[in-house]
Each structure stands twice: as C-alpha cells, then as structure tokens.
What we know:
The complex is a heterotrimer of chains A (445), B (342) and C (305).
Chain A: H1 18-22, H2 33-43, H3 45-67, E1 85-90, E2 96-99, E3 105-108, E4 114-117, E5 119-124, E6 129-134, E7 137-142, H4 144-159, E8 165-167, H5 172-181, E9 187-189, H6 190-200, E10 205-208, E11 211-212, E12 217-220, H7 235-271, H8 273-287, H9 291-302, H10 306-316, H11 319-332, H12 336-343, H13 348-359, H14 361-384, H15 396-404, H16 412-439
Antiparallel strand pairs in A: 1-2, 1-12, 2-3, 3-4, 5-6, 6-7, 7-10, 8-9, 10-11
Helix pairs in contact in A: 2-16, 3-7, 3-16, 4-6, 7-8, 7-10, 7-11, 7-13, 7-14, 7-16, 9-10, 11-14, 12-13, 14-15, 14-16, 15-16
Chain B: E1 4-17, E2 20-33, E3 37-41, H1 48-56, E4 63-72, E5 75-76, H2 82-88, E6 93-96, H3 110-122, H4 126-139, H5 145-148, H6 158-170, E7 176-180, H7 188-205, E8 208-213, H8 216-222, E9 225-230, E10 233-239, H9 240-245, H10 250-257, H11 299-303, E11 309-310, E12 316-317, H12 330-335
Parallel strand pairs in B: 3-8, 3-9, 6-7, 7-8
Antiparallel strand pairs in B: 1-2, 1-4, 4-5, 9-10, 10-12, 11-12
Chain C: H1 2-29, H2 43-52, H3 59-71, H4 86-121, H5 126-140, H6 143-157, H7 170-199, H8 202-209, H9 214-226, H10 228-242, H11 246-252, H12 257-266, H13 270-298
Helix pairs in contact in C: 1-13, 4-5, 4-7, 4-10, 4-12, 4-13, 5-7, 6-7, 6-11, 7-9, 7-10, 8-9, 10-13, 11-12, 12-13
Amino acid sequence: MNDESMKISSELWEPLEPEAKDAEKIERPSLTFFQDGWRRLKANKVAMVSMIIIAVITIGAIVIPWFWPYTYKAQNLDLANIPAVMDTYPLENGKNIYVTPQYTVVVMDSKGNLEGLAESGRKDMIGKKNYFSVDGLEICVDYSLYSEATKEYKSLEKKVDETGMVKVSDAQYLVDYFAQNGGGAEEISLTEASNILENKMTRVKVTCGGEELTEQVRLRNHTYLLGTDGLGRDLFIRIVYGARISLTVGFFAAFINFVVGVFYGAIAGYIGGELDNIMMRVIDILDSIPMTLYVILIMVVVGPGLVSIILALGLTFWVKMARIVRGQVLTLKQQEFVKAAVVTGADTKRIIIKHLIPNMMGPIMVNIAMQIPSAIFNEAFLSFVGLGISAPMASWGTLCNDALAGIYVYPYQMVFPAIAISVTILTFNLFSDGLRDAFDPKQRK
Amino acid sequence: MAERLLDVRHLHTSFFTHLGEVKAIRDVSFHVDKSEIIGIVGESGSGKSVTSLSVMGLLAYPGKVTEGEILFKGEDLLKKKKREMRKIQGNQISMIFQDPMTSLNPLFTIGNQITEVLHTHKKMGKAEANERAVEMLRMVGIPSPEKRVRSYPHEFSGGMRQRAMIAMALSSEPDLLIADEPTTALDVTIQAQVLALMKELNERLGTATILITHNLGCASSICDRILVMYGGKIMEEGTTEEIFYEPRHPYTMGLLNSVPKVNGEQSKQRLVPILGTPPDMLHPPTGCPFYPRCKFAVKACASMDVPEFQLSGTHRVSCFMCHPDAPVKEEYEKQKGGIRHV
Amino acid sequence: MIRYIIKRVISAIITIWFIMTLTFILMKAIPGDPFSSEKMADPVIIENIKAKYGLDKPLIEQYGKYLYDYAHGDFGISYMKKGLTTNDIISSGFPYSLRIGIWASVLVLVLGIFFGIIAALRQNKIIDRVLMILATLGATIPSFVFATGFLFVFSKILGWVPSFGVDNWKGYIGPVIVSALFSLAYVVRLMRTSTLDVLNQDYIRTARAKGLPEWKVMGKHVMRNAILPVVTYIGPMFAALITGSFVVEKVFGIPGIGNLFTNSILNRDYTLIMGITVFFAVILVICILVVDILYVLIDPRIKYQ
Lengths: 445, 342, 305
C-alpha cells in the first residue's frame, strides 16, 4: 500500500473545517400538523380535483335556484317527458318538430326553444295516423309501421323453431329493415327480431302537407337543459334541489355523528373502568344490528321527511366514530401532556375539550369525511324505496324511483340523477381517501 | 488455511426508490471460513442487514445487487436461477431474524414450521420429520419438546421463539447460518442464553455463522472475527482481539467508547457517544462516509476514495489515519489501545 | 372451545333479546295505532279488532306475550294481509332472497379473493390500477343505478334476460350480479390490503428464507393469513345478501323478503315489520356466530383472548 499512487498532496492533510462537515445537511422547514397534512393533500391530484368538484356542486346547489327560471314544482303537462336531446324534423317555415313516443308533436324553433304542443287535429285510429297543424301546415304522424310490425312479431313468436330462430321472410318489417340497412341473413334469432322491432327500425312516418319528411336534425333542448319529467317539471332544477337535500343530509348527519360519536367515545375512553365496559357493550350490541334496518324503523316512527332522515342517519351511524375516538383517547391519555393537565387541576370536561379532541382531529376529520358519502348513499337508497323525501320535493333517490317506471322509454330521466349521485358519492369518497392519506396514514386500509 | 465457505467480492446493492437510487452497500468484500463465527457490527442503516439479505437472495423489490460476486462453495449465487437458489436457501444457508415475535407464522404450529423445511429439502416423511423436529427442539433447550412441537408461536415466550427459530434454521444441517440481530428484541438475560446456545451449537455442529448485530459486546462474546460496517462500506475488519485492543478506525474507536465498561478503573470513565447521525444513503457523502462525524477528518477524507490498509493478515482498515504520511494526532494515538486505553 | 361457544351463544341470545325489545319499543312509540287511520266509525269494531290482536291489554303483558310467542317461533298475524300469518309471508318470500343471496355470496368470495390477490401481487401495475378503479366504482355507484343499467343493457337492448321476475334461471343473473357488486368491491379491496400487509410480514420472509417453493409460500403462509379479515366480513355480508336487497328486488320485480319488508313498511303492517325485523336480526346474529366459531378454527390465537 505504499506505492507512489498513494501519495497525497500536503494541503489535503489539513483538518476539515466543521462547516464543511455540515454541508450535506438539508434543513427541512418545520410544519404544524395541519400544514403538513394540507401539503400532502395538495400533492394528491385526485383528491384536489374531487375537492373542486364537491365545491362546484355545493355552490351550484346553493346559488342556481336563485336565478333559474323554473322551480322544482312548476308543472307544464303539455311539455312532459321531453328529453334533453331530440331528433327533430325541420319544417319549411324554420320551425322544427319533435315526435314524442306517444305520437304527439312538439314544436320548437330551429335552435331548440320549445314553443309547445302542436294543435291537434283529426285522429285516425284505424289508419293509425295522427294529424296536427303547425302554423297552418298540416303534419301527419303515421305510426302504422310500428303497430303492423308488432303484429308481425307476435306471429313470429308462434313460428319460432327449437333453436330460437325465425325466418326473415315471415315478417315484412324485417324484410324492410334489411332492405334499408343492408345485410341480413335468411334466419335470425327471435331476440334479434325483437331488438330490431324495439330499438332499430323506423317507427313513424312523418309527412308535412302530404310530403314525407326524411331529413332529421339533432337539437339540444334549449328550454329545459336536461329535459322534463313525467309532469313537465324541469329535470335540471329538480336535480339541483336533489343536491341541496343530499348535501344537507350528508353534512348534518356527519355533524350529529361527530357530536354523539366523539363525546361518547371520549367519555368511555377517558373515564374508563366499569363505565367504559358498559358503554362498549352497548356499542357491541348496536353494532350487531343492521343499521339500515334501524334507520328504516326510525323513519317509520318519525315519519318521512328531510329532518327525520337526518335524525335517523345521525343517530345510528355514530358507532364507528365512537370506537375510533375511544381508541385514540386510550392512547392519548397515557401521554405526558394529559397528565400535566390533570396535575394542574383541569377538570375532565376541560381535558377532553381542550387537550384530547384537538389532538384527535386527524382521525375525526377523516371519519367525518367518510360518513358524508355514506349518509348521501343511504338517503338516496331510502328515497328510492319510497321511505325518504316525498313529492313534490325532489331528492336524487326519488328522481330515480320516478324514472324507474319509464326507464325503457325515457332513460334520460334515470341517467341524469344517477350520474349526479354517482359523481357526488365518488368524489366524496376519493376526497376522503385523500384526506385519510394526508392526515391519518395509519388508518389506511 | 481454513477452507473458504463464503466469499463476497465487491458487492454493491441498491434500492431503486421513487426518490432515486439508494446505494445501501458500496463495494463490500469479506469471507467466511468453514465453522467460524464472524460478526458484522454497525448502526442501523449501515447496510449490515442488506448484506445478509443479498447473500440469501432475499432482497425484496426494489432492492437489487448491482455489482459483485457472492461465491458459496466456489459457486456464484448471483448467477443462480431462483429455483436453484431455493435448494440452497434453508438447506445449505439458513437465516434467523431479529424479531422472533413476528418471524414465525402465527397460524401454524412450531412443529409444522420446522417439518416443512425437512419435507422440502430432505424429502423426509411425516413421522421422521416430526421426530427430527422434536430432537431439534430438545437440542436448543426447549423443555418437553414432544408437547411443545404441537404448540403455536403465541404460546411461546420471546426467548423460546428465538430458540425455535434456531431449531428450524439448523434442522436441515446447513453449512452457514446467518443470524440477523437474533438477540436485539430479547431481554438481556435471554440474550446471553441465546448467544451461548449459538456458540455451543457452532462447536457441536460446525455450522459457520454470520452474526449481525449493532452491539459490539454481543459480537465479542462469540465471534472469531468482526467486520465493522458504516454507510454501506466496511470500515475495519479484524479478529475480535484486533478490533477490541488495536482499533485503527475512528468509528470503531467511537463504538468501543460507547460500550459501557464494568470492570476496575475504566468503569469510572464516562461513556462517549458518537455525535451526529448516520449519512443519508440517498445522497451519500463522497469519500469516507464517516467524515462528517469524525474528529480526525482531513480534507482528503471528503474528497478522495479511501483505500484499504492491510495492517496484518487479518486486520484491514479504510482510514487515512493509517496512511504513512498522516499527521500524528495525540488523541488518535491514545485511542489505539482500544478498550485498554486509559 | 366449548366454553367459548357457550359464551358466544349466550351473548347472541342477549343481542336478539335487545333487538326485540328495541323493535317493540319503536313500534309502540308510533303515534296512534294502525286501525285509527282507517275510517271505521264504530268504536265497537275497533275495540273488537284491538282485542283480536291483543292490543287492549297493558303494554307489559303485550310485551310478555310477544317474547313468549317469538321464542316459540310464532311471529303473529299480519294486520293488513287478511288471514295470513307473518310466518307464512316470510316463508313465501325468503326462498327467493336466499337463493339470490347464496349465489351472490359465492360470486363475492370466489371473485373477490381471486382479484384481491391478483391486485396485491401486481401492486401498482396496470391490472391493479384497473381493478382498484372498478372496485371504487363498485363501492360508489348505488345498486339501483347498476340494476337499472343492467336491465337496460341486457334486457332492453340485448334481450338476453327477462326484464321482470324470476321464472327461469336467467332471471336470477341480474339480481345475483347486482347484489354481489357492492360486497365484491369491498372484498377485493380488503383482500388486496390484507395480502399486501401479509406479504410484508417477517414470517413470509422466514418462509422464503427456508427455501419453500413459491406456491407453498403463497398458498400456505400468505393465503391463510390474508383471508382472516375476509372471514370476519363473511358473516354480516352473507346475512345482508340472503335477507334480500330492497332495491334489487324492487327493480327486478322479485317477490323476495326485501320487497315484503318495504311493502310492510309502506302499508304500516306492524306485526309484519316486527316479524321481519326480528327475523333479519336472528339471521344476522346466527351468521356472525357461525363465522366467529369458524374463525377460532382458523386462528389459534383467538382461543386465549
């Protein structure tokens, strides 16, 4: 080891300055618990996007009813069940008409502003034709095609062979369909025949002054943003009111959970001993009862309505919170700062409120955030089965329930509230996941 | 010269985390001869556990050996396929871990966990394997082993579990046993018992052992040779006597100073802690990893790779203070006597 | 072991008693009685009806009779469905819900455990991400949205399944899948996290250090431990699935017990509400009891706690 390459120049033998030793160290700024959690939350893109969506929904729910031209209960039976997007026939005079599934005609301008039902004329029940007049033009809606096809399908059902196949040539509507759209085998399955009947074939022939209208224009409904429901009420504003109800239920139920759960858990954990034992047994028993069952029973007792939903959810969902808080208190009360407070003569109430709760804010916050979507979920569920908000007030569950009957004809009435519920619960869930990762990583499941 | 069992040459191991490459081991070389016990000593984060996992082929994602050779009986373990490695793991090289509370599967009996080694490697039948398990438990000093073989881990105390781990590791009669901090989680009295057991079994079965510990005292009680690791590098290697009585690396000196002494005059001395914290391995310092905490650091320490100085057949040190041109420092000279210095 | 089971059975009986009492109190707390709303002018008739249902007796006596009858498996006579006992009504609806519940549970356990392990083993790979997104959606989207979506696609557009009722096996496909989705999403996540947790345990490293073949490490050491949290979930899940989802039965038009329960509430049929509530609670308590006892067989640590 003593060869020439080991020679080291003399200045390198000088002692290293103490500052040079510290050069490697990087100081981290010290952050409070909330600053630190917030910093982590901000880095979580999914949670931030969810938070923004929640904020938009909340502000929308508060603000939109102030200026929206319709109220949640204003009915317009003429314009019931009008979808948000319509396939319309343009007329010569610049108007457009939309033929409803009941073979009535709705008139609108070329932008999609609804003007009302067309004046109804003669109804030819035998020839399956309805006549209307729009600004002097005679419109004829001929729905004989579909009723003929339905008859043909009925007879097809009798001719079906063991494999479930039917001959195309047996039904004129199938022949016509394949002639128009090309393709087509000699035999198709009965389900396909029914599918063509219900979904694919042209059902009506619309003529204006004897001339068939073939050109169709897809127009957005400019009067009712998301269309109307079965009573001609604006679906959009009803969904906005639904958001009001869902959010109210969510926040208030979470608030009751917070109050009941936190104090129950804190008292059980802090006082401990026999009291803790009894309080935890009570929780065990409550926990073994399906909560939905009791929400339903409480609803039956108190009667349907917003307040009773909030009460029922709030009074049954606090168990988990109480468990978490009790666990936290049990660890915290062993710590020195609590003992110090006891020594300085603080009473139990003060210790719980001033010393324990602020130190458990992480898990408590996370738990509240998780219970909001669960409360919203349950409100929608209860309203859907008919135990929640009742007419004319609208909640998302009620809207879905109302739409259920007409799901095949007016699917949009189900789609929009369903999207509203799903998006809201999803964003709340994603946000609370982010909150948990940021403030209470231990609770990660 | 004794027969070489394990020869680790220029081993580099890194963890590829999302923050960047953490070089946990940088150019580590050492060897283990048949039937000897060597100790690897260092603080947490010095790379001693990673070294043992590298040898066992148990590095978990994102860890990876990036360079070097691990020759076991002359064959490079790093070139072996997983399937071939499994014939060595638990059979020719066994390992026991730090925490006996968590290292045994809570859902299976001790006997079940011992016999599965024998089923896998020795192709033993049920009765034979069971008999062997009982015999192993008796050997490690577990009372009424015929009954205990049917117990679950939670029915054992910490010390008993570690004994059971040792029984499991030795049941296949391996050539090499790696013990990763086997006594850290145990009470002091139990620690001594377990170490004594390891020494006794080493003498009886001739199993070479690598004892990994942060406690120089533990290592001194049973090891023939000791390696001192710091910051993923070997600082000093020597026989136990050389490390204790002729330390040449300031880090070894620091470790010795922080061991409490109980006999005679020296017990009046104050413990001297090593100031500072181990380096951040994501950005390891250039040169010697120890220089930020070293009393004797010179400019060369921070800027140049430190060469190895072979002081005797068994003693090697990585420190510029052993360079012939190094300036003489009074304090350093004083500490050269190791635990004997006054 | 025997002592443990006896202890658990006693606590189960106490729980059922508690639920029965709570239900009784809630039912009695409803203002008015079910017959005052009907326009029956003659107070004599009302008195007669009340006497028939035992409502003229003091509360404590009603309570005692209620406990006695229920203990003997007699759940009383329906207020609204004339001439039918609660037992008849439950036994007419329960088989449908039971059939759907059993199949849904099988689906949840098989797919949930399988996909959970796959996701854990491929942590942060594409398949894991996709499974986790699906699981989040499954736990988020309400079942009535799934149910109507399912009907719309598979019944209306594709025509593969009937839109209403359970006349043949095809009618069960939708209810089974939709009932299973929520629990499935939960079990996938549960299994994933517990597998990841177990994979990081020291005893898995020990198993690997022993040179065990990979199938044995996974199949014996990882699986057995990772499945424990799922086992605890099976009890409440199975009970919830076989007692019928109100929503699924409503949308798919199944005359199951969930549907009966909602109707009994809407009709204010108090004996039926009480009967079904207690029936549900008993099923739940039994499921939890069975699973708890099973758990002891899998996890030797429990016996000593």
